[in-house]
Amino acid sequence: MNEGQYLLGQSGRSSKAVHKGKLIKWCKITFCILICVGLTVFRESSTFLSTSRRESYGKRASLTLYSPCFKNSSRIPSKFGCANCEHSASSVPLTWRLDGVSATADMAFLLLMHDPDAVSVTGLDFIHWFVVNMTVTDNTMKLPENASGNQNLMPKGSVEMRNSINKTGYHPPCPPNKDHVYIFLVCLVNIVSNRSDWTNIYDARDIVRMLEGSLCGSLEGVYPQETERCKVVSEWKNENTFQSKNRLFH
């Protein structure tokens, strides 16, 4: 009996067992590779814009976003928030212009309004407004005041998705702890064909990650802290509602 046979005997494993062990090992490695490839494909398919499309934009491509009601980094007018102590308000009017890009039929505009300052309060980058599939009908497009919820005012093809309180459409800013900075994004992306993939997103960071590399225009607006009077009114009127129990979700 040579050394190799001795060691094999010591381990109590036959040559068949060794081959079986190697087979299992390679199967595990192959499985891991397939999982990694699958995750990569899923990640790419879960983005709003393909890599090849992103790289095709020239240096002159731009998307400019602004509002006729407030300048970038300035205060959002009270009528678009909860200043009246009600969690209903007109949606913000927006205008954007696309330059240096010829949009194709499989592309559309996407709108996201979110509140990164809410992370310290709720753990979520709060989604206030999320709209997909706005058809590119012109290089300059507008969302009029109070367009949310009104298909006659929303751009053609628009689909308003759920926000972080699981309701469709615009949720007005109403920061409970301090003044918050709200970010508006309008991006040129692929048309969202399977909307069910995006119905259970409650954290804007998930959307922003999927927008990486997209052509976007941005706008920031500040909304002041909710007043003590509004807090009392809100708690009294909504004592047993989701909004009351989770009032910090603003």
UniProtKB/TrEMBL annotation:
Gene3D superfamilies: PEBP-like. It comes from the Eukaryota. It holds the Pfam family PBP. InterPro entries: PEBP (IPR008914), PEBP-like_sf (IPR036610), YbhB_YbcL/LppC-like (IPR005247). CDD domains: PEBP_bact_arch. SUPFAM superfamilies: PEBP-like. This is Phosphatidylethanolamine-binding protein. It comes from Galdieria partita. The lineage of its organism: Eukaryota, Rhodophyta, Bangiophyceae, Galdieriales, Galdieriaceae.
